[in-house]
Amino acid sequence: MPHWTATCHCRQLRLSITGAPRHVHACTCTRCQNVTGGPASWNGWFDRADVAIHGTYSTYAYDRAGSGGSFSTFCPTCGSGGFGVTQEFLPDCYVIPMGSLASPEGPPPPAPAMVHFWQNRPGWLESLGDLPGGNGGWPDR
After folding, report:
1. Which residues contact 65 (CB under 8 A, 6 or more apart)?
2. Domain parsing of the chain, residue ranges
3. pLDDT at residue 140, as a whole number
């Protein structure tokens, strides 16, 4: 059984995850670009029973497509990390940003099974593989 610990930047908010995600996807819609500050989101939906929440969090409630009850959370100290619930898709799951599971000690987070709104991606996204790379001093997996 996979086990991950998702954390915010300051590690005050931690999510202990003991089960595999029910769904993983990337999304390049403009909403996800605004929320993440990047070209795409990468999220996993985990059964709530498989997620233990440690630490405090603040909540931002929103109403997408009139469904009500959807929310995102974040660490009140550093403003990052967290989890969410979407009422329109797998409402019995927590939505967790898969990048928050990245750790040199743990198993790598699963790759997305699909990408939504690919037509909204930034034009430069497809050329990333052609750019020079480097370690930058960060630990590799």
Report:
1. 88
2. 4-123
3. 47
Residue stretches of the chain with pLDDT short of 70: 1-2, 63-68, 134-141
Other beta carbons within 10 Å of 91: 13
Spell out where the chain has E strands. 4-7, 14-17, 23-27, 41-47, 51-54, 58-62, 70-74, 84-85, 93-97, 115-116
In order of 22, 100, 139, the CA distances from 113 in angstroms are 11, 18, 26
The pLDDT tens digits for 92-118 are 999 999 999 878 777 888 899 999 988
Task: Tokens for 80, please give them.
Answer: 């990052």
pTM of the model: 0.84
pLDDT at residue 68, rounded to an integer: 67
Architecture of domain 4-123: Beta Complex (2.170)
Q: Using CA atoms, how far apart are residues 59 and 62, in angstroms rounded to an integer?
A: 10
